[in-house]
Amino acid sequence: SINSALGTIFILLSVGALIGSLYLAGTVAAFVYYGVAILTPTIFYITAFVLTSVLSVVTGSSFTTIGALAVAFVGLANLMGLSPAIAGGAAISGAILGDKIAKISDTLTLTTAVVGGVTVDEHTRMVRRTAIPAWILSAILYLILGFVRSGSAGTVDAASVQDTIGQVYNISLLAFVPLVLVFVLSGLRLSGFITLLLSAIGGVIVAAFTQPELITSLADDPGLPYAISVVKVGIETFATGFQLDSGIEQMDQLFSGGGTIGMLSTVWLILVAASFGAVADLTGMIQQVIAPVISK
Question: Which alpha helices (DSSP H) does 25-119 contain, by range?
Answer without folding.
Answer: 27-38, 41-59, 62-65, 71-79, 84-101, 106-114
